[in-house]
Amino acid sequence: MIKDKNGQTAGHLAVDEEQLETLRMLLSKRADFKATDNQERTARELLEDKIRELPSAEWNDALRILKELDRSPELYSDPIPNSKEVDSRFNPVILDFASGFFHRHGKRRELGIDVIVSGEEKFFKRHMEGGPQFRWLHLPANNMRWIELLMLRYSDSDRSPKRHLVLRDELWMERLHRGSQNLAHARYMRPMPYVHWEYAATFKKMRDYAQKVADFPGPSTPAEGKYQTLMQAYMTPQPGSGKADQGNPPETEGNPPKGQGKWQRDPVDQLHIRRSLDQYCYHALKSTEDRDKDQLVSRMFENGDLSGKPVLIMVDQLWLWVLGNDTVVTSFPERWSKEEEKPSNHDPLTSWKTLPTTVPKLCHRINWRK
Q: For strand 275-276 and strand 311-316, is the pairing parallel, antiparallel, or unpaired?
């Protein structure tokens, strides 16, 4: 967020200088109007004062649009069209614990994400089989639509808490940093705390494909492998499909045109891909290729201080929810290169009681094993 010496953003200055066209441009670009200046005032508060001093139909219209930005969109209730083939290629990790112990009664269930988010598989049952149980479900990508549909299925099973509480605005949509539509690495949830790694060549393949999808969406960017297929499905604009506009109120005299209200969901915001350290620090840059090559670890490989296949430091994000007293849901983007490797051995998970320590432990581990 760029501010001047008085703590004012571009929104503050547009109101102060009575630059209505600039304000409209900022609104169309979904600028943040919640930031405060050194006097703890937001641009919206300045705008309301401006209208009281000098009533104007045009400024009132700007305020109306600004108020629309405070409205959160509806959560997704249906998968994207034709997503079953894509979603079925990804399997969540599902661990069930009977009587509190995994090693005696647990089992790993192989289900495609498609049957869970569509409701085809009644995954969240009110009473699990085999007596008292605890369940851990982990998704292999940070996909907002997957999470929203998963929480909907949880609510539909007559379980608490309900989706509108778990994904309430201050814990979900208000944490979304959207960025420019053609910058895939500018979409993330605040904060962004987790450091991991990826092979440099694999990251370059991911970064280049993400940019191709942003610049040339649709069939013109063929996908190879399940990860590129996922990116193409969930990062491609879908105008006129109906699903892409889910959450839009009807365009009436009381509502701004499409694209000017926060309630319109942009399909490209759904999938949050992995980011390099410099993409995290400089998310407004279209390309960080030169900076990525200048990472300390990159120079160490180049200088021969490190041997093997070059890697890059990545900044990922863990999403975690504890639902009721028997379900944990986590989500984390896996490394693309993980499919090429043999499964690594981790500390055994013997009881659901170890989850509170196991999950953070895994999240803080930088695994350099090759």
A: antiparallel
pLDDT digits (tens, 9 = 90+) for 150-194: 999 998 887 888 898 899 888 888 788 776 667 788 888 887 556
Whether the upstream peptide bond of residue 191 has omega within 30° of 0, thus cis, is yes
Structure token pair of residue 273:
């891909």
CA 166/CA 148 separation, integer angstroms: 10
Roughly how many angstroms between the first and final C-alpha of the chain, as a whole number?
Answer: 38
Distance CA 366, CA 11 (A): 41
User: Are residues 249 and 67 in contact, defined by beta-carbon separation less than 8 angstroms?
Assistant: no
Q: What is the pLDDT of residues 22-77, one digit of tens each?
A: 887 887 776 777 778 888 788 878 877 877 776 677 777 777 766 665 666 788 99
The conformational region for residue 75 under phi > 0 = left, psi -120 to 50 = alpha, else beta, is: beta
Q: Give me the half-sphere count of Cα atoms (radius 13 Å) on the Cβ side of residue 155.
A: 14
Q: How far apart are CA 270 and CA 86, in angstroms?
A: 14
Q: Which residues, including other chains, have CB under 8 Å from residue 72's CB and lie 6 or more apart?
A: 169, 173, 174, 262, 263
Count the neighbouring beta carbons within 10 Å of the beta carbon of residue 135: 20
Calpha distance 125→134 (Å, rounded): 12
Spatial contact of 131 and 138, defined as CB atoms under 8 Å apart: no
272 and 188 Cβ atoms separated by less than 8 Å: yes
Q: Are 57 and 25 in contact (CB under 8 A)?
A: no
For residue 185, the SS3 value is helix
CB 309 within 8 A of CB 370: yes
Q: Which residues of 16-39 are buried (b: 16+ CB within 10 A; e: fewer)?
A: eeeeeeebbebbeebbebebebee
Give the domains, in start order, of the chain with CATH numbers. Answer: 10-69 (1.25.40), 84-339+349-362 (no CATH)
- How many residues are there in the chain? 370
Burial-class residue 253 by CB neighbours within 10 Å (0-12, 13-18, 19+).
exposed
**Counting beta carbons within 10 angstroms of the beta carbon of residue 94, is it exposed (0 to 12), middle (13 to 18) or buried (19 or more)?**
middle
